[in-house]
Design brief:
By secondary structure, the chain is mainly beta. Helix content is 4%, strand content 38%. The chain is built from one helix and 14 strands. The strands form four sheets. It has a four-stranded antiparallel beta sheet, with no helix packed on it. A four-stranded antiparallel beta sheet has the order 11-10-13-14, with no helix packed on it. Strands 1-2-5 form a three-stranded antiparallel beta sheet, covered by helices on one side. Strand 3 and strand 4 form a beta hairpin. The longest helix is centred in the first third of the chain and has 10 residues. The two termini are 19 Å apart.
Length: 231
């Protein structure tokens, strides 16, 4: 279960460790008493979600381990309560109003700076938080909620794409994608909601994921890790 470390623990670490926070999309990653602190300064004004991701590889296999409650705070941070076992890399997934998003560069924490937390300090039990939907980097919606297909090497590959209703019913197929960047008008999907897709390279499935198209005049609501609207 993903956990959000209490504000109290973060403030304690900030008081004991004089760190300078990088400005997004750059982040600062440090070890504190065997844990990892990810911190940043936020210059953006239209952020809807910030998810913290961890991987044992700097390029792939990132998993979301928590999210930030106050996404518009000028300075913020997240403490990974899992004991640091190198190599571990961290990055942020940041989504914005209108459906756009970015990933920060991955970063590995430096050497442990604080060795002992004073025994008089009581750590507040972290609350359980909801995980969030992370869109595909290949198939996603733009600011107008049309579906974008972004495949930089499409001219060299044999990509094809199938879309499905959320219940698995086949919707339509693009048998050969020959453009690196392609936009599908949302009217092709008939209605709003969650749709599944399969991306193929020369007939072999390389990604199965989902894309959410909101109703006209509305933005994408908060979605859980599976893409379903949070109630």
């Amino acid at each position: 279960m993903f956990r959000l470390v209490s504000t109290f623990f973060f403030l304690l670490a900030a008081q004991q460790f004089a760190f300078s926070q990088d400005t997004l999309p750059k982040i600062t990653v440090n070890q504190i008493s065997g844990k990892v602190l990810v911190s940043w300064t936020n210059p953006y004004t239209s952020v809807t979600n910030i998810g913290i991701q961890r991987s044992y590889d700097s390029l792939k296999s990132f998993k979301t381990i928590g999210s930030v409650l106050n996404v518009n705070a000028p300075t913020n941070g997240f403490v990974d309560t899992k004991i640091f076992i190198p190599p571990q890399y961290y990055r942020l997934f940041i989504s914005f109003e209108g459906g756009s998003y970015i990933f920060t560069n991955s970063q590995r924490p430096g050497e442990d700076t604080i060795m002992v937390i004073p025994p008089t300090v009581e750590i507040i039990k972290p609350p359980v938080v909801q995980t969030w939907f992370v869109p595909s980097k290949d198939v996603f919606t733009d600011k107008d909620y049309n579906v974008v297909i972004s495949l930089p090497d499409a001219t060299k590959k044999k990509y094809s794409l199938k879309f499905y209703e959320n219940d698995g019913t086949f919707l339509f197929e693009i048998k050969r994608i020959r453009e690196n960047f392609l936009t599908l008008d949302k009217v092709n999907f008939v209605h709003a909601g969650l749709f599944g897709f399969e991306l193929f390279d020369n007939g072999v499935v390389i990604e199965r994921h989902k894309v959410y198209i909101p109703q006209d005049g509305k933005s994408i609501p908060p979605l859980d890790a599976q893409g379903y609207e949070l109630k």
